[in-house]
Amino acid sequence: MARDTRVVMLNENHWYPKHRLFAIALLKKLKKSGYTHLALEALYPNQDRKINERGYPTFNSGYYIKEPFFGQFVRKAKELGFVIIGYENENREINRELSQAQNLKQILDENPNNKIFVYAGLDHILEKETKSGKRMAAYFKELIGINPLTINQADMVGSTHNELTLIPQNLVNSFEKLDKAVDFFVINNLTSSSQDRIIGENKTQEFTIGPHRFEELNAEEVLIKIYKKSEYDIYKSRSIPERATLKKTV
Question: Which residue positions in the chain have pLDDT lower than 50?
Answer without folding.
Answer: none
